[in-house]
Every structure is written in C-alpha cells, then in structure tokens.
Amino acid sequence: MIMTFEQFKYYLDAYGASLRRWPAEIRAEAAAFLASSSAAAGALDEARRLDAVLDRFVVSQERADELRLIDAVVARSTSTPPRKRFDLFAGTASFWPRAAVLAAVAVLGIVTGTFQVERQTYDPASFDVAQTLTSDVAGEVSGL
Q1: Distances (CA, A) of 124 to 12, 121, 128, 129
Q2: For residue 78, what pLDDT is reported?
Q3: What pairs with residue 141 in β-bridges?
Q4: Disulfide check for 142: which of 60, 65, 134, 135 has CB 3.0–4.6 Å away?
Q5: Distance between CA atoms of 104 and 111, rounded to whole angstroms?
Q6: What is the pLDDT of residues 29-59, one digit of tens each?
Q7: Stated pTM of the model
Q8: What are the domain boundaries of the chain?
Q9: Chain segment 115-125, per-residue pLDDT in tens
Q10: Please, which residues have CB within 8 angstroms of residue 60's CB and are 6 or more apart in sequence?
C-alpha cells in the first residue's frame, strides 16, 4: 500500500513529528513516503516546530492553584447580581430632566402633527419630452 500526502498529514497531525510515536504498522510506509516527497518533508519540519512550541508549555502541577481557579469560576457562575429596586422619586435630580425632555418631545410631536403638508402630485400628461433631450442627433439625455 502506498501512502498519500493526505494520509501522511493525518498521521502527522494525530501523532506528531516523531515517527516512533506513530503506529508500528505504518512507520515503514511513512518513512518511505517521507524519503520520496519534498512536500512531506516540509510538513514534517512544520510539525517539528509545532512540537517544539508545545514541549515548552508547562502545565501547573499545583493542585491548589487548580482548585482555586475552579472555585472562582463556580462562585462567579452561581452568584446572582443584586437586583435594583425601582423607586420613582429616588434620585429626583435625574428624574425631572428626563420628564421635561419627554414632555417637550410630546408637545413638539403634537404641534408638528397639526400642520398639513401640501403634497405635489406628478402628472404624466404634463411631462415635456423636449425639455429632457439636449440633442436629437446625439441622442443624449440631459442631466446624465
């Protein structure tokens, strides 16, 4: 069986750049494919760089740090924020300006609604074609 690049890439992503971590039954086939493919060699180099970065990552072995983090997450997720009680006259300094603005907008709406706007209608019969053409010879339409 001949390995394809897609298969090689799959095993490379799954097991890393070290072929000794790969399943024993496909190591020889992978090594042969690697020797015959420059694309596979490039993919292996990229995987080696990724493995080197991952090898530098250190996981905290301190169980106490892990437990504190878990407790903090659980505490924040289960706590409910305090509810604010609505009081109409609490903070009257901010209530009355809002009420005045609301009243002014209402009065403005009423006054504006009482005026009737004269609407102009379009009469296709009064449309003058001669005004829209600049030249019959050139066939140009004015305004374009």
Answers
A1: 74, 10, 9, 11
A2: 73
A3: 133
A4: 134
A5: 11
A6: 999 999 999 999 999 999 999 999 888 877 7
A7: 0.41
A8: 5-56
A9: 766 666 666 66
A10: 66
